[in-house]
Amino acid sequence: MSGPPDAHIRLTLRHRRVLRRLAWAPNELGLARAYVAGEIDVEGDFVDALSGLHRLLAGGALRSDLDWAARREIARTAVRLGAIGLPPKPPAEEIKLTGRIHSRARDARAISHHYDVGNDFYALVLGPSMTYSCALWGEDVETLEEAQTAKVDLVARKLGLTEGMRVLDVGCGWGTFVIHAAREYGARAIGITLSRAQAEFARKRVVEEGLSDRVEIRVQDYREVADGPFDAIASIGMAEHVGAAMLPTYAGALFRLLRPEGRLLNHAISRHPLVPPRPDNTSFISRYVFPDGELEPVSVMSGAIEDAGFEVRDVESLREHYGRTLRAWVGNLDANWAKAVRLSGPGRARVWRLYMAASALAFESGSIGVNQILAVKPGEFGSSGMPSTRTALLS
């Protein structure tokens, strides 16, 4: 199959079951199921192949103006090829959670589904930094590891970290930010995660860095933290799991945990307000990648933070940076494909390849973005303790 002049795509259909999948789910979910099951292969650069396929279909490769004779022939061909029949069973990697949405137990299951794939698998994809959020690609940055270090340092500077400050990292992942905050700024850091695999890895890193006296890693829900106040709170790539209905609870909990004039840095993916939320029954992301994950426009996130009592002081978009970060992750996965399959299984490796490639295109097209919202808990008479200029804030 060939598309626009700048894109050459080759799709190989390895089983007629693909046609039945698409007949029962004629959307991204049906196509994704076929790819995860190994029934479709895509040749060439995977991100560029998806981009070319999207342009091909958007340009009219699938026609809706066929006459009845053509439609009858398609129906006969579908029967001959086995496209008519009961819906095939979804791949084992698909998940549908039960129980009350965004309860603590269900949130823990959702996080485990995504993050407990295996630390060795994530190391292949993320590289040495083990940082699973948007990197910061400056002019003098050449490697993914340098870009991730630049990102966590940007967070630390926006929070105004100094020696002895007590900082909480909500959704700490594999510990990159808390280690940076303690090692480079002398902060005393607590990182919380719902993933036991992440916590185990992060604790080992803390010991190896000789920071056990400054960094603590907990398996804990943000709603369970009760040992505030903190001087600063970072939430990097975690708020996407909270859910719109729980945003007031989330922002309120962080507000209560901060001291007056304490800063919050909320780094989260956003949905463009003109892009509607994806329904669970047709969303590849919700069935395979981020069950119960919800993306909200940056205005909704900042509104929830303000409604909790914070003063929003700075908002920065890093959208283009995330497209580049995801392309780097896909490159790492492809370069280590055989090992990734051994570690996670072929289906799970295909899930991650498809989701990261599609996400790169979504960031590049502007349908989703990523933003850092810096807010402060007002002190007495509304004092903020903040620098008066953005230049001073980042110095």
Automatic annotation (TrEMBL):
<dbReference type="Pfam" id="PF02353">
    <property type="entry name" value="CMAS"/>
</dbReference>
<keyword id="KW-0489">Methyltransferase</keyword>
<keyword id="KW-0808">Transferase</keyword>
<protein>
    <submittedName>
        <fullName>Cyclopropane-fatty-acyl-phospholipid synthase</fullName>
    </submittedName>
</protein>
<dbReference type="GO" id="GO:0008610">
    <property type="term" value="P:lipid biosynthetic process"/>
</dbReference>
<dbReference type="InterPro" id="IPR029063">
    <property type="entry name" value="SAM-dependent_MTases_sf"/>
</dbReference>
<feature type="domain" description="Polyketide synthase-like methyltransferase">
    <location>
        <begin position="121"/>
        <end position="361"/>
    </location>
</feature>
<dbReference type="GO" id="GO:0008168">
    <property type="term" value="F:methyltransferase activity"/>
</dbReference>
<dbReference type="InterPro" id="IPR020803">
    <property type="entry name" value="MeTfrase_dom"/>
</dbReference>
<dbReference type="InterPro" id="IPR050723">
    <property type="entry name" value="CFA/CMAS"/>
</dbReference>
<dbReference type="GO" id="GO:0032259">
    <property type="term" value="P:methylation"/>
</dbReference>
<dbReference type="InterPro" id="IPR003333">
    <property type="entry name" value="CMAS"/>
</dbReference>
<keyword id="KW-0443">Lipid metabolism</keyword>
<keyword id="KW-0949">S-adenosyl-L-methionine</keyword>
<comment type="similarity">
    <text>Belongs to the CFA/CMAS family.</text>
</comment>
